[in-house]
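Bench notes, afternoon.
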Amino acid sequence: MNDIRKKLAEDWLAVDRDHVWHPYSAIGNDAPVYPVREAHGVRLVLEDGRELIDGMASWWAAIHGYNHPVLNAALKEQADSMAHVMFGGLTHRPAVELSALLVDITPEPLQSVFLCDSGSVAMEAAMKMAFQYWNDRGRPGKNRLLSLRGGYHGDTFGAMGVCDPVNGMHHFFSHMLPGHHFAPVPEAGFDDTDVEADVAALEELLVAHHGEIAALVLEPVLQGAGGMRAYSPAYLRRARELCDRYEVLLVADEIATGFGRTGELFACQHAGIAPDIMALGKALTGGYMTLAAVLTTPEVSATISGGDPGLFMHGPTFMGNPLACRVARASIDRLLAGDWQANVRRIEAGLAHGLAPARPLAQVHDVRTLGAVGVIELAEGVDTTGLQQGLVDRGVWVRPFGRLVYVMPPFVMDDADLGRLTAAMVDAVAALPAG
């Protein structure tokens, strides 16, 4: 213990390299990590004093930027009274007030709120709700799920089971996961209205397997970490109709898309539909605390509550954390207080304009935007570590993966910083070897 403390005092980054496991990383490798000293607004300040414009919003969560005075005040006020208390058998105003707000702003008829720790846990809870619902309806054979290829729903085992089984991040574990069903990636783009071929492929699976399918699990309109693809709201409307026809629940994973990211408060609203179960996370607290929520209908919650064993079988230790609930309410109130839709449209226009010069580059396969999401898809895979270093050298924080160089900036980013962000992306991609 003394050795590592001595090492920590002398070179804390060496301790990080040798002992700290970062997401999707290896212990002891030489891939650079960039030490952050502080963060304000849309800027990360590194230990060496360099400032980076943050295009990632801390994995899409920090929609108000960093160190926001309103969110800071909410957190401090709550910390002075109660940082945490178990939610089993106890309750508190921050959790109830947040739940009431979520019921108020989400599509009807979502009325029951289950608070949990993270997006992956929210998806676990959502899937368990679907299974328990059908079991309590006397149909235990409905114990499989239907998902879309190209999707991503989290890193825990249940969530991995509905991620893309071939090209997703979890193919290594495929032989250990339950055998769910997968529909093709919808080909019709966001502005397309002809979705017949896509819908036919989905319906074929439902016709064949609806007797064992508990729920269709999808990311509404925008597939996130699985490929940053936007698909037609018309497909989502038809999927809702098919779920009703074949007695399958619809689970909407709005963890990445919720709270305005795609231009609607929730991506389901592009299609004018409501799911049976909705999972929320990421931007729920404005990036301040880890918190997620699962909302469902009175039909689902009453069936589970009246079945065997008469309760929902899930209960995270830090469920309903008062600090997280209080800052989440402050974040949502802050979002709704302004003209957030006009602001997201402004960001969308800035991203489209700023990324357009990448379109003719030989290194680029596609450029696309939706709401406050901008994507440069490369023609082939590259050394993402080197590309990220090039982006840092240009003064921006963007974390490419696979063939995607994408941004989901904080909503508070102004036009000047948005221009600098997109120019750095285009410049870094243009510097890559062609072909």
